[in-house]
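Changelog-adjacent note: as of this version, every example in the card shows the full chain rather than a window. The one below runs 169 residues end to end.
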Amino acid sequence: MKQNDNKPKVKKISFSKLITFILLTSAIVLGYNLYSQSKVTAVDPDATVAPVILPSSQKTVLDTPNENSSEEEKREYENLVRAQAEESSFLDLTDCLAVPKVLKIKNNSPIKIKNSSDKEHAIVLTEKQEHSIATGKEISITFEFFNGPGVYAYGCDRSPRPVGIFLVE
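Full-length structure tokens:
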């Protein structure tokens, strides 16, 4: 008498077919997930981005007004700059952080700038007024403020936003 006749027959799958099935299923799931993520709406590179307008209580001195700012916003900004300005002829840059943030200077007067970082940095007022400062070095610069007295933002290493402000008198 055979004892195995009552047991259901199980089809054996080879190990290589099982691995192939798992890899194929994983590839399909991964492909679907990548496809789903690519459906995110693309941003039109030619679209105009509206500026974020912060309430005056949240604005910092580095949030410079743009050409669409009202005269009142420009006056508020100038008052903020004047309130934070420190009169000096010395500026310290450490990892592109300026101390003081707002430097009050006389027009056509030299400014000493020290790079306290462990790498070279460049202070940038305009495309034609960019000065590299070696690690641990100090340089003296006389910027040309073509519009005379006023508020001038400057960057460091071509930063997208200002790192400091010159209040020129």
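Structural remarks: The first strand starts at residue 86 and ends at 87.
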